[in-house]
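Researcher: Let's try something more involved. This one mixes different molecule types, so please make sure each is placed in the same coordinate frame as the others.
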Amino acid sequence: MKMRLKRFFYLLMLFALGAMLAMPGLSGAKEEEQAPGRKLARQAIKDRKIWNTTDHTKHEALRQNFKSGDEVTRACLTCHSEAEEQFKMTIHWTWIDPNSAKDTITGKAGHSLNNFCISANKMKDKGCNSCHTGWNGKNEGVNCLVCHSQKLSTLFNSNADFDNIKEAFATYKDFAEDPDAKEMADEIQTTIHQAVTDIGRPTRKNCGSCHFYGGGGDGVKHGDLDSSMTKPSKSLDVHMGLDGQNFQCTRCHTTKLHNIAGRIYATPASMHRKSLIEDDLTPKIMCESCHSDKPHKSGSKPNDHTDKVACQSCHIPEFARANPTKMSWDWSKAGKLKDGKPYKVKGDFGKHNYLSIKGEMRWDKHVKPEYFWFNGSIITLTAKDIIDPTQSVPVGKPVGAKDDPDSRIFPFKIHRGKQPYDKVNNTLLTPHLSGKKGYWATLDWNKALSLGMKETGVPFSGEFDFVETTYAFPTTHMVAPREATVKCSECHTRSDGRLAQLTGFYMPGRDCNDWLAKGGLLLVIGSLVGVFFHGVGRIISRKKKEV
Amino acid sequence: MKMVKIYLYTRFERLWHWLQAVMIFMLIITGFETHGAYTLFGFQQAVELHNLFGISWIILIIFIGFWLLTTGEWKQYIPTTQKLIAVAKYYMAGIFKGEDHPVHKSKDAKHNPLQRLTYMGLAATLLPFQMATGFLYWSYNDWSDWGLNGFLDLEILAMIHIICAFVLVSFVLVHIYMTTTGHSLTSHVRAMFSGWEEVPEGTHVGKWETKKIIEYRVVEEKVE
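Model: All components are placed in one shared frame. Result:
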């Protein structure tokens, strides 16, 4: 008997072994130390010391009293002779999509719209220019410092007198003309000098000074970019976290002749899915560039998803994880007065829920993204596009389809708005907001819209109403540590899954044929009932027999 | 009626039966969880277990097939119509009247005609179908490499897999119930553990029943 047991045991072991061999993913997972995608990416950033052959504090051209920003730029150009010409070709200067059509111009300096401050009115709405990379819009030279001065925000944000270098120059000019204020002027000049001589590649602070504050405030536009990303923790962003890799933006947004890698309106950030293995000079703008398209341990199910699901979908479970982000903006509620005056109401998170000049808005934190098929291209409406006001208008809409081999499921922040449109022409309208004639001063829609549309160069019938709109932002920053990734069951679930809205394809665990389920259940219950009555029949007949 | 014990199920046969039982049980509970019917292990764990047991089952089936072929035991599963009606009638009526089972088990005829038909149906259609659809489902990501993308649709494949699963559940329920219809309530189950089944002494085995039908014919010819 013992012998028999032993053999039985051996056979059992044989089957167990066979099963293990067939499942290399399950048996091998523990032996591998690192997922291949992780290993590759670590190699790509191995040599991370940035070496420099110049010290800007020693340059003669920078040892002068700068009276204006433009003077600084001219000093920079004495060495970097081609920088200005290069830079003025890029969208950071032109605010026009280089691939734009001729008549309908895509870009902030063109006809493009959003559902935040709606339009820059071809750069005539000066309020928007605070984020332009020139000293005075496109009228003066390039502001090299806003991107390249390493200490800019430390120097100026802490100073109560002015919060950016443009204001510093304005103040300096006032003091320099006053002989009594020479000491003050010298002090400002010292600060300016510090800013001018501490030069390097753009840091998160430099890029963030505009990109964290888009739409007129911290975290208004992007859900995955706000001031918390200046000094993020690893749990907020594994790549940029100070206790993580401490990446600067340019680590991924690689640059050619001042053209910074990234999506530009309808043009995807990258046209090809390639890793550095396939092409060692490929831009590092995609996750795959460093991590490859099969980054997980071999045999693990997530690798099977990379053809249809973007990395971001699982690795960014929520956006706005540190600071709140604006989720909706209803312009139709703007213009209310209290005691004859415009007013503001603060709501959750210490953010305004209502402002007379802007309308009603909603903020949120820890937001789960919405998911759409995305091939890297976003169609943004312009003031010339005809809309259908009977339904919600997609002002910024991701392009993609489930059958498109270049499309993958991607997470988005959808900002919902209500904004003015022309009831006769069926176009969205571009109000002029800032300045004395702007809506924020007059609270008069007719005047603001007439002026704005004149500047934009698109006819306005004079009749307007408000229409619901959406604007999509791809969520790609705030990549969470792997412990926090989206679990399988958050999508593969019958109801309320993250992908509940994405239909037209079969997803295990989510989709179920109703008739099949009913039929199957009937068969199972039928079998149970059948054997039950058969059994009862046997018991009764046996008892009869006994009697 | 005097009962005698005969050794009916060999060691490997019993091992295969119970391994298969465990696998089918696990496949059913993890499979319906993967389908989203309930949460037990959690989706990820359920899928991993389902894959593990599914692949193991396919490996086991290869062993079983090899055993059946080399031992000649496959002949036990050749379908027959002889006494089929009688057995069906027995389960529908005779069993309630205390009648004797029309076909008794013997070393060379382990299964009654109804069992043969059922097991053959399982082995020839349901199980291969279930394994094939399961294997294709598992290899979904290789379809394009294998040139199958135009021919297969995951939803239809999944539906077939689920239909087979329901039929399998139904089989398991009836199968378990049928084990109680032996000489005693548990005699069939005990036989599947020990290998020894109780049968009435001196059971006549019809020639048509035996897997050694050819050998018998030879013996009979010699006698004549």
